[in-house]
Amino acid sequence: MLKTPCIIINLKTYQQGYGKKGLELIKGLEKASAGHKGQVAVAAATVDIKYFSEKGSLPVFSQHIDPVGFGAFTGHVLPEAVKEAGAVGTLINHSERRLTIADIGAAVARCREVGLISCVCTNNVDTSAAVAALGPDFLAVEPPELIGGNISVSSARPEIISGSVERVRTINEKVKVLCGAGVKTGKDVAKAIELGSSGVLLASGVVTAKDVMAVMKDLLAGLE
Amino acid sequence: MLKTPCIIINLKTYQQGYGKKGLELIKGLEKASAGHKGQVAVAAATVDIKYFSEKGSLPVFSQHIDPVGFGAFTGHVLPEAVKEAGAVGTLINHSERRLTIADIGAAVARCREVGLISCVCTNNVDTSAAVAALGPDFLAVEPPELIGGNISVSSARPEIISGSVERVRTINEKVKVLCGAGVKTGKDVAKAIELGSSGVLLASGVVTAKDVMAVMKDLLAGLE
Amino acid sequence: MLKTPCIIINLKTYQQGYGKKGLELIKGLEKASAGHKGQVAVAAATVDIKYFSEKGSLPVFSQHIDPVGFGAFTGHVLPEAVKEAGAVGTLINHSERRLTIADIGAAVARCREVGLISCVCTNNVDTSAAVAALGPDFLAVEPPELIGGNISVSSARPEIISGSVERVRTINEKVKVLCGAGVKTGKDVAKAIELGSSGVLLASGVVTAKDVMAVMKDLLAGLE
Amino acid sequence: MLKTPCIIINLKTYQQGYGKKGLELIKGLEKASAGHKGQVAVAAATVDIKYFSEKGSLPVFSQHIDPVGFGAFTGHVLPEAVKEAGAVGTLINHSERRLTIADIGAAVARCREVGLISCVCTNNVDTSAAVAALGPDFLAVEPPELIGGNISVSSARPEIISGSVERVRTINEKVKVLCGAGVKTGKDVAKAIELGSSGVLLASGVVTAKDVMAVMKDLLAGLE
CA of A16 to nearest chain D CA: how many angstroms apart? Predict the structure, then answer.
């Protein structure tokens, strides 16, 4: 299981986040996080999972898995393959890669079977409550309208985080809530933790930053 | 709100279920259900909602709506239009027309706004629990492997019905559970009610039956 | 078959385009087009096809069909049902309702079987050429970036229309090309015809206009 | 560019086709194909592209790419990343991973930009003709009803191969046609070549075979 509080950095398909450049970025994140108490992880494109897992020391999540098994599923992401390549977990149902509810349930179940940490993305308090009933390890609340923006959900809509934490607790208290969308600074992180979350999921704020090290150190400071 | 116990008959795109033939079928269902205490409704293709609502006396559900509003949504099913055409409610997320969890949440919310009864289909106990958190009026549990078959879920997998009823009660006791998949006889219906459901959702068992009246009377007897 | 040159007005899910208001709009279009040589048709939501066909006199297209037949296809649009309800044709693959290439091919074939005019939407010269090989009655080229905007494709990117007309002619000369996206004025229409198209497909320019009659008369004048 | 005639083996998500076992399979294929004139390639899950490219000597295709660029596309397959990982080409629109026609066109264009060989799957003569207009390097005709079966399309429906070859030639003579679905033996391969194709795309016939070496040698003999 991933230690908490944690910061998961979603590399998406950013130019800075794949292949050799992606590995350099990860090396920078490793350095920045050394000595900090927060756990840092990256969510990588499947094509880079093995490379980043072997050459880097940060835990690697997949950005997506399909709820399939062995067989005739061309172009799908097999949980077993992602696990063997070195991933410790996976995002599921990111707003840029939505799944049906049946598939989310099946994907969470497949993660349990093969030993991957599941982190399901949601978009509001109701869907957070719904996903909690499926029993993933984490869920990350990300109001789509705030993704990629400059205002953190923890500032703009704190009630979505606190409301999700509260509803999730009633339904399945083992599910940890992460705060996504618009997180940029240590202050945003501190606020997210204060609202009851176990960490943050963020992307552009780190990956496309001019000074990745500085941003990362600031974010980690927010956990302390 | 739809009275319960109820029997919702999904006309799908069966040859017997659209246009003039569909209306004849509905007239037969009306006759068969006269004097019985169970509420009968049909889920029609959008193209027939107005026709069936005006010419028949059974409540008409849509088989699907899209969580959209006024605007540029070519080929989508606008909740307001379905309502104006005479529908009293709609199925959402049928196994033959799955939605993402964000869209299910939004579709349930749109139903509330325009005054349509929402009935969300689920496929197992976990997804029933998840959907309950979204607060629809009804949910219909239909294990996909039993849909269209000859064995009722209430006989083959009674624990899916009783388990759904129980989990749903914990999460949102206002949500009524229907039993779907494989229901064919009054005995299946009686069993479904005994397991705690508020009725059944079925399709081929009625729509493609040789003697629709007889089948319908048998099903309704199961409610008494 | 639809007479050409033609103007197809896509009602989408605009507030002005469904139910009673939609019928009023159609009555206005009928009046505006009386005495003009161009053929006017509307593309309606499935829920309104029967109503608009019976109460109005303009030919009605569906905004979408699914390439399915009789059977278990909940929430799908059956070509036979659309035809029985009074539609003369259908849009296929609108940019707001994309299909796979296999499904476009199957939908065009289903239109031929049931006697519906098929009009497949494309987004550039290459996809126009591709669709021509599937043999629909019409194709409508609509660069997505211009849809809903104020600049007509016939002005902004005339080479997309002339290029489509040319490529389509090489592959299947029976397929007629319509010009979509951004058409607002009679001048745009005249330009579209000049570039070799058989008419236009448009939406917001008419449906959301303050003075629908005036806009429609202007568009029709562009055909003369 | 891939030499022809060629045999592309789609590893799908078969238990024998990913990670360490997948590499062993590839090593066997290399041995079997040594000294034969036909070109053998594998289509791998993205997660294995780098591993198979570095440790094996057969050209590696991706099973899928998304028509996206750098940016916010979580869980998507970036063409640049697949290329950097060592892939020489990619399947597009496999029947188990269908795309819209707009996306197929865009994916073929992206392949040209980054230098990947594109191989678009089709399901009949009409869609083969349509895809030819998009100008991929290869297309592979696979009638879905024959995929995974025991009867080769070249025996069961030879007119689909010859018809595709003929129509494709008229539209874009640079596009090479591969024969997919149900290919099992050297005789099937020989027949496919005789019908005008440039090779075959197959999966279960090799990947799940008891004696992979023997099957592979038989297939390659069909090219001679």
Answer: 9
pLDDT (0 to 100) of residue D183: 86
The answer to whether A123 contacts chain B (CB < 8 Å) is yes
Is D94 one of the catalytic residues? yes
DSSP A108-164: HHHHHHHT-EEEEEESSHHHHHHHHTT--SEEEE--GGGTTSSS-HHHH-HHHHHHH
Residue C58: φ, ψ to 5°: -80, 145
* Contact at CB, B122 and A130, closer than 8 angstroms: no
Q: What mean pLDDT is predicted for residues A50-74?
A: 97
Chain segment A200-219, per-residue pLDDT in tens: 999 999 999 999 999 999 99
* Concatenated DSSP letters of D68-130: --SBS-TT---HHHHHHTT-SEEEES-TTS--BHHHHHHHHHHHHHHT-EEEEEESSHHHHHH
| Chain B neighbors of A124, CB-CB under 8 A | 105
**Interface contact flag, C12 B77, Cβ < 8 Å:** no
- pLDDT winner (highest mean) among A56-70, C148-162, C190-204: A56-70
Once rounded to an integer, what is the mean pLDDT over residues C43-66? Answer: 98
Closest by alpha carbon to A40, among A86, A15, A5? A5
Distance from CA of C131 to the nearest CA of D (A): 6
Query: Does residue A50 sit at the D interface (CB-CB below 8 Å)?
Result: yes
pTM of the model: 0.94
Quick: pLDDT tens for D166-214: 999 999 999 999 998 778 899 999 999 999 999 999 999 999 999 999 9
With a cut of 90, say whether residue B182 has pLDDT above it: no
Are the Cβ atoms of B127 and A171 closer than 8 angstroms?
Answer: no
- Assess contact for B44 and B26: CB atoms under 8 A: no
3-state secondary structure of D201: strand
C148 has a pLDDT exceeding 70: no
Structure tokens at B51: 């026709």
Partnered with residue D40 across adjacent β-strands are: D7
Please give the helix or strand (H or E) that residue A71 lies within, else none: none
Fold of D6-221: TIM Barrel (3.20.20)
**Residue C93 in contact with residue C99, Cβ under 8 Å?**
yes
Record: contact B101-A105, CB cut-off 8 A:
no
Query: In chain B, which ranges are continuous DSSP H helix?
Result: 19-33, 49-55, 79-84, 101-114, 125-132, 153-156, 158-171, 186-194, 204-207, 212-221
The predicted model gives A127-144 an average pLDDT of 94
What's the DSSP call for residue C139? Answer: E
Nearest to C130 among D95, D130, D167 (CB): D130
Beta-carbon neighbour count of residue D208 at 10 Å?
A: 18
Confidence class for position B89, pLDDT limits 50, 70, 90: very high
Pairwise CA distance, residues D214 & C160, whole Å: 52
Instruction: Tell me how crowded residue C34 is: count the other CB atoms within 10 A of its CB.
Output: 10
